[in-house]
Every structure is written in structure tokens, then in C-alpha cells.
Specification:
Layout (H helix, E strand, L loop, with lengths): L3 E5 L4 H13 L4 E4 L10 H4 L9 E4 L2 E4 L1 H13 L8 H35 L6 H21 L13 H13 L5 H4 L4 H10 L3 H7 L1
Parallel strand pairs: 1-2
Antiparallel strand pairs: 1-3, 3-4
Helix pairs in contact: 1-3, 1-6, 1-9, 4-5, 4-6
Bound molecules: glutathione.
């Protein structure tokens, strides 16, 4: 079995996505802290691992892999025998559709704007930009409702088995659910509300996202 090292900040949603998969698979790995708050992720040392200065980066026996979608699909193959991806091609495409919706539309609004403005800025002594938060609610709602439309919720996003789509959305909901905007964003998503009640209690989620 390869030696796996995850570089990244433990509170990063994308780092959590990778760790949720590893924890659920019961795989040994090392987490090496790289802060995105004190310049460490922009240091020459880290940029040599990931030229974009983003976390996570996965090191596999000395080979570096970055971009969370590439990392989780690789790990799914080597540590989980593909059990975290639907076997059926259409469902597999829907898994990638959910990952794409999160990367392109949900993360920038939900985390990059609402969570940063509501939780991070005040914790650092700043003032929330209310106009910026308000402008992010409608696009975040559109993205969550698009995921709702793809969700089976029986009980996981794409069926009976937890998988990569769940590992992508759980870390976003962890933070978004702590903001006042969560209620409006999820007002029309009953399947996701039931999903969230279930997955937020899972032991891996408590361990990785505490
Ligand atoms: N496309 C990257 C995005 C990763 C990403 O945005 N990570 C955030 C933390 S959740 C980060 O590194 N932020 C630091 C920064 O933007 O400087 C991936 O899929 O891995």
C-alpha cells in the first residue's frame, strides 16, 4: 500500500473532502498542516508542491497530486475499490455534475463569500460586507437547488451508499449551516435537509469536521 500524505489546513473544506474519504475507507494517512492564513500555502516550499498555492495536495510515495477531484477519484480507485462512485454511468456523471456545481457555483458563493464574510471576517476583527453576502444568497440557492434536483437522498446524495458527492457537499454544509443565510438557501430543498440531518451525525464527519 502506498504511503499517503495530505498537505493542507484541517479547516479547509476541500481538505475535509479528501479526509472524509480516507477516514470512511479506514486508510492510514498522514496530515501535514499547511496554513492558508499565515502565508505558508504561498511559500516557495509549498508552491513547489502545488503551483496554485491551494490545499489540499496529496503525496503518494513521493508523487504529488493536486486538485481535489483528481485526488478523490484516485483514492477511490486505490483505497476503496471504487465504492465511493456509482457504478451506473448516468449516476457517475451526476456525481461529477455535483462536484462541478460545487466547484464552479456553490463554493465561491457559500464559502468564498457568505462563510468568509459571516464567520471569518468578524473573527479577525473586521465587519461583514452585508451587500456582498446578500448578493451571494440567490446564486448559492440556485446551486443548492440544482443539487437537490439531482439528489436521491436514500439516504445519501446518489443512493444507498455514501460517496464522493457526499464528501464534497458535507464540508460546505458544515460551515453554511452556521450562517443565518442557510435557512433561505435550503428553504426549497427537503431532500437535502433530510440528508443533512443524517450525514451530520456520522462519526467520520464528527472526527474530520469537528
Ligand atoms: N481547485 C482546488 C481548490 C482548492 C481550494 O480552493 N482550497 C482552498 C481552501 S478550501 C484554498 O487553498 N484557499 C487558499 C487560497 O485561495 O489562497 C481543488 O479542487 O483542490
Amino acid at each position: 500500500m502506498a504511503t499517503l500524505t495530505v498537505y493542507g489546513t484541517p479547516i479547509s473544506t476541500y481538505v475535509r473532502t479528501v479526509r472524509l474519504l480516507l477516514e470512511r475507507a479506514g486508510t492510514d494517512y498522514t496530515l501535514k498542516g499547511v496554513s492558508i492564513f499565515n502565508g505558508e500555502s504561498q511559500s516557495a516550499d509549498y508552491l513547489a508542491k502545488n503551483p496554485f498555492g491551494k490545499v489540499p495536495t496529496l503525496e503518494v510515495d513521493g508523487v504529488l497530486l493536486y486538485e481535489t477531484n483528481a485526488i478523490v477519484e484516485y483514492l477511490d480507485a486505490v483505497v476503496a475499490d471504487h465504492k465511493f462512485s456509482p457504478a451506473e454511468p448516468l449516476r457517475q456523471a451526476q456525481m461529477r455534475q455535483i462536484m462541478g456545481i460545487i466547484d464552479s457555483y456553490l463554493y465561491p458563493r457559500a464559502i468564498g463569500t457568505i462563510v468568509i464574510q459571516r464567520l471569518i471576517v468578524p473573527s479577525q476583527g473586521g465587519t461583514t460586507d452585508e451587500a456582498l453576502v446578500n448578493s451571494a444568497v440567490a446564486p448559492a440557492k440556485t446551486a443548492v437547488e440544482a443539487i437537490e434536483a439531482l439528489t436521491l437522498g436514500t439516504p445519501y446524495l446518489l443512493g444507498n451508499d455514501i460517496g464522493i458527492a457526499d464528501f464534497y457537499l458535507i464540508p460546505i454544509f458544515i460551515y453554511l449551516s452556521k450562517t443565518p443565510e442557510f435557512a433561505a438557501i435550503t428553504a426549497q430543498t427537503p431532500k437535502l435537509k433530510a440528508w443533512w440531518e443524517h450525514v451530520s451525525q456520522l462519526p467520520e464527519v464528527t472526527k474530520v469536521c469537528a
